[in-house]
Amino acid sequence: MSSFISRLLKSPIATKRLVSQLTQSGEGKFSEMLRQFSLKRILGVFERKGGVGERTKSTTSVSSELTDDMELATGIFKRELMLRQGGCTDPWAMKRPLKRGAGLEKDPTVIPSAFDGRLVGCLCLGDRVPKWMWLEKGEPKRCECGHYFVLKNVPAV
């Protein structure tokens, strides 16, 4: 303990680390000894409400609740969440591919779209790769295999 006091007396400005090392062993006795040596200037810098060298503690409350997705969602994602809450498990109709209908000129396969055009892929017989075509609103369009498609307007999600 005397080596600490001699180091403290030699240094012009006491560091926090030095004072905390000195005060850890016996808070009451050491602070009383410092007062006796009239080293109050050192205590004045580091003295706190509970004693020398004691740190304050944060008492900020932490909320354990997470916010709901519906509160944070916007735009199309919010509409999708609302549809799912309403019971629609596939709002974009992407779980199963559309099956071809009769494909005749008088009875074409109906392709739903909320826009004036849609990209359609036809798996023609014997092909492994679909043949892509741009289907537009209006007259039915014929694929290379002879199958007809027509665009049907549906409301947007």
Automatic annotation (TrEMBL):
Name the domain of life this protein comes from. Answer: Eukaryota
Q: Keywords on this record?
A: Metal-binding, Zinc
- Keyword Transcription regulation in the entry? The reply is no
SUPFAM superfamilies according to UniProt: Rubredoxin-like
List the GO biological process terms: mitochondrial electron transport, cytochrome c to oxygen
Amino-acid positions noted as binding Zn(2+) in the UniProt annotation, renumbered to this chain: C122, C124, C143, C145
Please list which residues make up the signal peptide: none
The molecular function terms in GO held by this entry are: metal ion binding
CDD domains per UniProt = Cyt_c_Oxidase_Vb (cd00924)
PROSITE patterns per record = COX5B_2
Extract one GO cellular component term from the record. respiratory chain complex IV
InterPro entries, A to Z: Cyt_c_oxidase_su5b, Cyt_c_oxidase_su5b_sf
Which PANTHER family would you find in this protein's record? CYTOCHROME C OXIDASE SUBUNIT 5B, ISOFORM A-RELATED, CYTOCHROME C OXIDASE SUBUNIT 5B, MITOCHONDRIAL
> What's the protein here called?
GH13842
Source species of the chain: Drosophila grimshawi (Hawaiian fruit fly)
